[in-house]
Amino acid sequence: xxxxxxxxxxxxxxxxxxxxxxxxxxxxxxxxxxxxxxxxxxxxxxxxxxxxxxxxxxxxxxxxxxxxxxxxxxxxxxxxxxxxxxxxxxxxxxxxxxxxxxxxxxxxxxxxxxxxxxxxxxxxxxxxxxxxxxxxxxxxxxxxxxxxxx
Amino acid sequence: xxxxxxxxxxxxxxxxxxxxxxxxxxxxxxxxxxxxxxxxxxxxxxxxxxxxxxxxxxxxxxxxxxxxxxxxxxx
Lengths: 150, 75
Fold this sequence. Notes:
The structure holds 2 protein chains of 2 kinds. Chain A has helices at residues 3-24, 28-43, 51-73, 75-83, 92-97, 102-112, 118-125, 129-149.
């Protein structure tokens, strides 16, 4: 993939992946940084199969790594930041999403925010297609129950 | 996943996602940091040269009023 065509692909996937990171709990600045890191990572020669899926997983890993590093090296700042809302607008669905397991959150976000197919989700997250379907059903059921409790 | 749950999930995530504001498009692609650094370095050097030229060209000899000199103490 040359730089120009990668930039086009990246721009096309940016909105969904950015929103996916926010849904998972990233702050806006963290989501931007993670996407920038993923953009540069591809230019350094990483192989991309499904653009949106690859970008989502790489950006998600970058964000998590950076968040851990922040927590280790700046514990007080990390705690204060974690308490802040991830977006300016409080979104109930994303709050409820945080009550699910990490795997459930990732599957739902990959499927319904990033817009990946079952196969792409399975490939991106490194799990079986059947696991994606079962996890999505279980997670959506739990999420709906939580939202209806509110 | 049954159709009702599928529909609820799609709608709920579409609504929630639509409420997340995206950063301005200019910020989507990272800036070339090396290029940025070169531009900054160039700007700093140019500014320093400009200040130097202004200082050198603006310097005139200072006229210091002559003092009355020290009075010699008679011993």
